[in-house]
Amino acid sequence: MSTEFTELIAMKKSRKRPVAGDVFVIQPKESHFYFGKVIQTNIQGKNLNFVGMNLIYMYNCLSHRKEIPTNLDEHELMFAPTVVNFQGWLKGYFEKVGNQPVTVKEQNVDYGFFDDFETQDKFYNLAGEELNHRPQYARFDGLASYGYVGRQVHRVL
Length: 157
Prior knowledge:
The chain is of the alpha+beta class and 157 residues long.
């Protein structure tokens, strides 16, 4: 059994930490770029797994060039907003291509996290406060990596 990671193609490595508004690309296939955006950095809250990490959105927006579309926030999300560590940038699987302010639409995406696969009846915001509704986008309450992002993209594709 091979443990080699093949879901994303490595591009340019970076030791710079992302900042809110950074737009990045991932490459699941040669010359097939999908755009992601850093929505929040240095997360603080009750979930200790999230502290200091980054909230990203991955958009279902295919391009054969690394040029940011003018209406990135008009594209659908590929999967629920995700909290990631810095390894995607360090290993070159996430390559920054620019920075755009986080839009009002992006700030108002209805997402949440749950911590029990059995019931999925309690949802929490990024700070760990309970939501009083089931959000449009829900994800298990755990830290993700570039590997998770790569697998999710391939599931969608």
